[in-house]
Amino acid sequence: MEVAILDIKGKETGRKAKLSDKVFAIEPNEHAVYLDVKQYLANQRQGTHKAKERAEIKGSTRKIKKQKGTGTARAGSIKSPIFKGGGRVFGPRPRNYGFKLNKNLKRLARRSALSMKATDNAIMVIEDFNFDAPRTKNMIDVLKAIGIQDKKSLIVLGDSNKNVYLSSRNLKTTEVISSSELSTYKILHANNIVFIEGSLEGIESNLS
């Protein structure tokens, strides 16, 4: 498929970018997408939750009442989970929620997500640009020119560009990443994906 290349003023340059059918026009594998998004979200979890269990509670170890003759249930420790202030049964412990996925599945998931966006006409290509200095207004002007200033957008750079990145950092609805940081979750999370012209070759070589 072909997409018109725009300049930073939102006008067509007269050139078109050819998007590889192996990356942007495959039959989406929804299960692969699900697994890749699930892994991404699992990796965001800190897993530092902790509750004290019976053995970790400070308290007396004496038997709090005699075994028989009280007319109530037996009780041997004030640290028992049935008493207020006692330990929690099977409480949460620190753990790592991450799990492994093979590289081929992750590539398939990203190709599937990009194909979904291409089907929805949510992919744009803009020619390479740079700013003389970091300035949020410059990025806002570019977004207005291409008509996505009010939409959640993902801008994909070929190489890291400090001025462009810093110019977008204060914008809540826009995220700028390099092509190596592209993930299935970020693709699906954005309403529009804007590829800088120089990023396409690297993305297609990595995912095809």
From TrEMBL:
SUPFAM superfamilies: Ribosomal protein L4
Entry keyword set: Ribonucleoprotein, Ribosomal protein, RNA-binding, rRNA-binding
Signal peptide per UniProt: none
A single GO cellular-component term on record: ribosome
Positions of region (Disordered): 45-77
Keyword Ribonucleoprotein: yes
InterPro entries: Ribosomal_uL4, Ribosomal_uL4-like, Ribosomal_uL4_dom_sf
Keyword RNA-binding appears in the UniProt entry: yes
Protein family according to the UniProt entry: Belongs to the universal ribosomal protein uL4 family.
Subunit text: Part of the 50S ribosomal subunit.
Role summary: Forms part of the polypeptide exit tunnel.
Listed NCBIfam families: rplD_bact (TIGR03953)
Protein name: Large ribosomal subunit protein uL4
Organism for this UniProt entry: Christiangramia antarctica
Gene name as annotated: rplD
